[in-house]
Amino acid sequence: MRIRRRADRRPVDEVGIDDLIPGDDSAAAPAGTDGQSTPAASGWSRVLRGNRLLWLVAGASVVCLAAGYAGGALLSSADAAETPGKGGPITVPVESRVLSNTVKLRGDAAFDDAVEVKVAAGDLEGPAVVTGTVPEVGATLDALSVALEVAGRPVIVLPGALPAYRTLRAGQKGPDVSQLKDALRAVGIDPGGSDVYDAATANAVVALYQRVGYTPPAVKAEAKSAVEGAQEAVAGAEKALASAQRELAAASKGADAARRVELENAVRDAERELATARAGGDGSAIARAEDALRLAQTQLSVGLSAPDTSAEAGAVSDARKSLATAQEDLAKADEEALTPLPANEVQFLPTLPRRVDEVRTARGKILEGAAMTVSGATLAITARATAADAELLKSGLAASIELPDGSELAATVTNVKPRKAEEGEEKKSGRSWEVALALTSPTPKQVEQLRGQNVRVSIPVKATAGKVLVVPAAALTAGPGGESRVEVAKGDATRVVTVETGLAADGLVEISGKIAAGDRVVVGR
Questions:
Q1: Bridge partners of residue 489, in order along the sequence
Q2: How many CB atoms lie within 10 A of CB 253?
């Protein structure tokens, strides 16, 4: 199209749109009040009348451009869908792939099971002044760690879920004593086999303090004095018993050998006197000799019989009772003097090691309330799930965590439990479930990436054993008997094929039947 130049040239900024339109400047136009045509009106009229072809071509171009864009987008989103012809079916190919149903959640990454470290009152005398170095945030507390030093005494970390609530002393029993013994065994110290805080337990506590480099708890002075008094009483009772036993032994001996010979000789002399008297025939002499013989025989019998030691034996029995009483008193005094375990010098924490998350005190300050907050040293993911999703989940399922840098980290579901709703929350949104996940061998860098982040969690709950045939759900229709069917297209013809359905996930359905990968199925018209 050529543009005719006007004979009367004017500056560029004075050229109007009608100057660029071809045709006669004097073409008819609506007249003004003075009978002359209005320039603007006449110009636009010439554009509309004289260039209809130009406007039709431009409009058609715009329509084609819009149609091309829409068609390209449709074909792109359909992902290999075909439209055989105007009004024909829309088809997609049957694919062979592994199909899985995945629950997707959002979870918070944090170190598990935060616990406040509070020092019990125990046997503290005076203010609880922090006298030692305080752990820094990020430090790790393990068994035998000294979490804090208060008034010059350690607060020793041991494994256990029950807080220390009393000072443990000899003779005590209970769950706290059993927990202490288990904790001592866990760190390689033998506390004995009984369920009582006994001498073996006290010796194990002494060994515990030696391990951490502190002197064992002191025994009260009065307990030491009681032990010394009981020891003296036992020594005195032992001496009394020994003396009574010597007296009994002496009394039990009876006549000695010389006395026995003397008595036996007296009997023989009497027998000879009797024989002489009988030979002389003097009746009086015979009677006196017989009496003398009976006396000698009686003295011999008495002299050789066991002596009466009942008094000495009674004295020995009394001495033994006194000794037993003294020994019992000593045992009680010894128990009172056994090394105790003050409640303020031990901190039981579950699932060691622990990470220090927050410190609320400092050296030189008086300890009030919790000294610090510690959490598990293991980073865990806690996600929230709906009841429908929770029904599909169970402990042991594999999962994946999307890291902030876009990479993925393997994890395992460790627990699925109802979440304790805040007041009014359940009424508003229904009951939710808490899903706990443990990371699988995260690197320190990955732990740092995840700490405090809200991350995407994917948990495959069902999957096919291998590759299966899948089609979009839109390709399935129901037959008259309720069977599932697909319509397979080949060229311009289609046929209906009955199929068995399996797992459904992400808009796709597993199928099997007289159909193969690559066959095209109708998803719409």
A1: 494, 520
A2: 10
Q: What is the pLDDT of residues 75-133, one digit of tens each?
A: 333 344 555 555 678 999 999 999 988 999 999 998 877 889 998 877 777 789 999 98
Handedness of CA 234, 237, 239, 241 (dihedral sign): negative
Q: In whole angstroms, how far apart are CA 337 and each of 116, 210, 240?
A: 33, 19, 27
How much is the pTM? 0.50
Spatial separation of the C-alpha atoms in residues 393 and 458, rounded to whole Å: 11
Beta strands in 351-407 (DSSP E): 354-359, 372-376, 379-385, 398-402
Name residue 355's beta-bridge partners: 140, 375
d(CA 119, CA 115): 13
The sheet that has 354-359: what strands, in order across it? 115-117, 372-376, 354-359, 140-141
Contact, 138 vs 355, CB < 8 A?
yes
H helices, E strands: number in the chain: 11, 21
Residue-by-residue DSSP string for 392-450: T--TT-EEEEE-TTS-EEEEEEEEEEE--PPTTHHHHH---EEEEEEESS--HHHHHHH
Nearest to 461 by CA among 514, 393, 523: 393
HEC assignment per residue over 98-119: CCEEEEEEEEEEEECCCEEECC
Secondary structure E strands in 18-86 = none
Radius of gyration of the chain (CA): 55
Q: Are 467 and 96 in contact (CB under 8 A)?
A: yes
Phi and psi at residue 478, in whole multiples of 5°?
Answer: -100, 135
4: helix, strand or coil: coil
Tokens 């009497």 belong to 270
Burial category of 337 from C-beta neighbours within 10 Å (exposed 0-12, middle 13-18, buried 19 and up): buried
Task: Give the residue ranges of DSSP H helices in 79-168.
Answer: none
Output b/e per residue, 167-181; b: 16+ Cβ within 10 A.
Answer: bbbbebeeebbebbb
Please tell me the predicted confidence (pLDDT) of residue 27.
37
